[in-house]
Amino acid sequence: xxxxxxxxxxxxxxxxxxxxxxxxxxxxxxxxxxxxxxxxxxxxxxxxxxxxxxxxx
Length: 57
What we know:
Transmembrane segments: 22-40
Shape: elongated
Oligomer: single chain
Keywords: Membrane, Transmembrane, Transmembrane helix
């Protein structure tokens, strides 16, 4: 958790220095974040289905 926060701070500082690209980078990051969240939810749903199938067996 702490390492992730540090990386986030470094990225934020980098984005602040390159503020002309800020809009494009923020949009790209938001798209990546949304896609990864959707992928994570899909994986967790299939994982739950598998575990219930195992429990029924």
